[in-house]
Amino acid sequence: MDEFYQQLLNILSDSQVLLKEPMSRHTTFRAGGPADYFLMPGTAQMGEVTALCGKYHVPYQVIGNGSNLLVSDQGVRGAIIALSGAYAKNVRISGDHLTAQAGTLLSQAAMEACQAGLGGLEFAAGIPGSVGGATVMNAGAYGGELKDVVAQVKALAKDGGVITLSGSQMDFNYRHSCIPARGMIVLETEFALQPKPKEEIRKRMEELKNRRIEKQPLEYPSAGSTFKRPEGHFAGKLIMDAGLAGFSIGGAQVSEKHCGFVINKGGALASDIYKVIRHVQREVLRQFGVTLEMEVKCIGEFKDA
Prior knowledge:
By secondary structure, the protein is an alpha+beta fold. 25% of the residues lie in helices and 24% in strands.
């Protein structure tokens, strides 16, 4: 085994280090080739792991639940660091504040808030991402966004130090925060919530769940909304009006139920999904002069068709 791997095992257990791990197991698209190293540190181990990657010149990318990613069929050279699952999952409640580690599912944080009789995260109950990933992109749905409830964020800085940013320091706007530009990694997020009757919270969460089931193709693997909302338009309507409902390449398809979703109908390669996305972008631009920006993040190499 190489020296980098041996050094990793001084920080992480065997179960936290996977070699040539298929990324199809770690993205909601269920597509993507292998990562050279797939690492699952706890939040307290992140500083050591990233420093080791730097020492050995191993490129790395940090992911959460893989719910907003499209990974190339050729996979990822270097390391994928996944802040998800048991190693980075913890929720603490103090008064009307809930603090969740980056690997906690946002839906779990919403449920914990409900159990504690704290409202404000109802909109997040059906979002499939992790708290860390959702914080980075200011995830939102049904009129709510994380910026509305984030009190502060603890993050790992580029120099390895841990800093705390207030919600106002996060530069939140539509699907944006300051985290990527500053090269930081979210370790945990603290939410400021409001006391509310549990039944009222549950009722609202159930209403939103039913709306999702009715309008979204949840029965198929996808990354949720494929495109950001273009100013003055709705991506799904533009795609439908362009005659692209049901358009497919290989196992990838524009959902007929909701045209804003590109789905894996079965056996789709990442390249199939990417080609569908690029075709949709070109057609909407050609027909309506509107540029659709991807909400999904691509990792690895992709070729335009």
